[in-house]
Amino acid sequence: MLPNQASVLVAGGGAAGFMAAIVAAEAGVANVHLLEATPEPLNKVLISGGGRCNVTHACWDPRELVGHYPRGLKALRGPFSRFAPGDAVAWFEAHGLELVAEADGRLFPRTNRSESVAALLRNAAQAAGVTLHTGVALQQVSRGSDGQFVCGLRLSAPQPPGRRQLRCRRLVLATGGHPSGRQLAASLGHVVVPPVPSLFTLALAANPLPELAGVVMDPVDLELQIDGLPTGVDSVRHRQSGTVLITHWGLSGPAVLRLSAFAARDLKAAGYRGLLRVNWAAGRRPAEVEDLLGSMRLEQARRQRGTWRPWPELSRRLWLHLLAVQGIDPQGRWADLSRTQLRGLVQALTNSTYSVGGRGPFGEEFVTAGGVDLGDINLASMESRICPGLQVVGELLDVDGVTGGFNFQHCWTSGWLAGQALARIT
Ligand SMILES: Cc1cc2nc3c(=O)[nH]c(=O)nc-3n(C[C@H](O)[C@H](O)[C@H](O)COP(=O)(O)OP(=O)(O)OC[C@H]3O[C@@H](n4cnc5c(N)ncnc54)[C@H](O)[C@@H]3O)c2cc1C
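Above: the input record for the complex with flavin-adenine dinucleotide. Below: its predicted structure, written as tokens.
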């Protein structure tokens, strides 16, 4: 049953809202109510990480950790030094869920099922005395004459449809990337940075690589040049290195998602157009590649160029494609490679250029860049500087991380800080 009065109201039953509510209630705050607009809480946790939930990342040093947040960066050093990935691992373990690191540092539940994470959060909330109300959306907030928040609620299934009012002393906004939270925060006087998508793949104009779909190369150096930005800056460049997956529409993989995150605002401003320079040569500079191809001419002189690749990790399909782009017969012998052809191959291997023609489908993870400006928030308690008594946590803030568990980590950290602060003041 929805009460008329709550001590703490948390709006948004996602990772950040659950964390804030559980931490507050476990620390002794009574009468904590958690509202979820949809019939099921924790939907994103359930679909996250391809159904496995990448809970956090084995990056233990807050100074290094902040480098994974295109929006947030240094401002997050304080929050992460109070509750870092190591604290999240310990917190989940203390609540009965062991996390296991993969070779690339991503941490997943040992069960490999996101349902385990969602179940843990639901059970911990219940055990701590948090009351969860599904089908209840926070629609409006104002401040009563007694300083309390007056919350206008819209009820839908599984609740009987209707509208209600609820008063509370403390309010936590944890509505994620949903527009309603940004509208509520703006209505209370906060600066809201306009949202743009982050963590997407890149579609190449007239995709020149369709026959290579499925090829994975690692590491690949990417440099994205974006021109004609309305900001007056002529041209900006974003660089990333790492694994790239060639798809039916263009490029994907961790390095591309990371690139999209750091370039999210510039790409949006430029209509998702840019020039992408790709070094397929695993970090080798042009002079090194030239030497390598030169020694192939001498040492593999009688071998066929298409069969004998300059280095074994270079995908055979990609190599044949680069030979074709340069008009070089793969069946010819290495000895017959002309100087001009050699230079063309060096260029293709170390500096292939592609036009980005748009945004491709999202990767496994997708977040919104933008949200409540961090300048409006005290990052020690997540309390608003504009509206005392209100806390803002999770994706609703203008913070987003790259793929790899960093987005949930920010939810755990901001939720934990909000819950702790509630316990100190309530
Ligand atoms: C497909 C996918 C996979 C992902 N995988 C990962 C991953 O493996 N690791 C990782 O770190 N990140 C991942 N992310 C990102 C991660 O899911 C988000 O960063 C995270 O869920 C944000 O949590 P949150 O609690 O701030 O918001 P949300 O999870 O969006 O939760 C907000 C909740 O509030 C509710 N709500 C909205 N408005 C109202 C309102 N007015 N009143 C009441 N309730 C409201 C919503 O229904 C929602 O349940 C993934 C994202 C996607 C889309």
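Notes for the reader.
The chain has 13 helices and 18 strands.
The first strand starts at residue 5 and ends at 11.
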